[in-house]
Every structure is written in C-alpha cells, then in structure tokens.
Amino acid sequence: EHRLPELADFYKLLGNATRLRILLALAQGELCVCDIAHVLGLSMPATSHQLKLLRDQGWLRKRDDGKMVYYRLHSAQLLKALRSDLKLLEARLG
C-alpha cells in the first residue's frame, strides 16, 4: 500500500483522453511530433506539452533527428494494460 500515491499519480496522468490517444497512436510505432499533432488535431505546442508529461514519467522515449523530434512508447506493458482496460470497459458498457 505504500505505492498507492504513485498509483494515484499514474491514474491522474492517464486520466486525460488526449494523453491516452497519444499512447494509442504510438502503439503503431514511432511518430514525429508533427504527425501526432496532425492525427490528434492539436497544435504543436499543446502536443509537445502532453508528450513531455508522458516522457517525464518514463512512458515515452524521445529521439531528435535534426529539427524533427520523434517519440515512441517505452513500455509495451503499458499498452497491453490500456488495451485490456478498453476491453473491460467495452464489455461493461456492452
């Protein structure tokens, strides 16, 4: 139970539909910030901010290539958990 505050912070981070959409978009593989912004219909600054929050918690890895910045998932386990939670929710809601 000593990890409950960390778990609460984890759920708080994931309690945002935009961040969840980013994680699921990155399930397809590495994407540049511009592609993520385009897919989500967000501005580059808004996208970068959300990516930074996820990266700071260790869920994403960043790669710079000149002026381009690419992100990829760092944890396949997180993606597996998200997909499992989506299935649970779909089953519950019918």
Q: Would you kindly provide a brief summary of this structure?
A:
By secondary structure, the protein is an alpha+beta fold. The chain contains five helices and three strands. It has a three-stranded antiparallel sheet with strand order 1-3-2.
Low-pLDDT parts are none
Structure summary, number of beta strands? 3
| N-to-C SSE string, H for helix and E for strand | HHEHHEEH
Structural class estimated from helices and strands: alpha+beta
For the largest sheet, list the strands in their spatial order.
1-3-2
N→C terminal distance = 33 Å
Mean pLDDT: 92
The major β-sheet equals: 3 strands, antiparallel
Give me the number of helical elements.
5
How much helical structure, as a percent, in the residues? 55-70%
Question: Which characteristics define this entry?
Answer:
3-stranded antiparallel sheet, about 90 residues, alpha+beta, 5 helices, 3 strands, about 15% strand
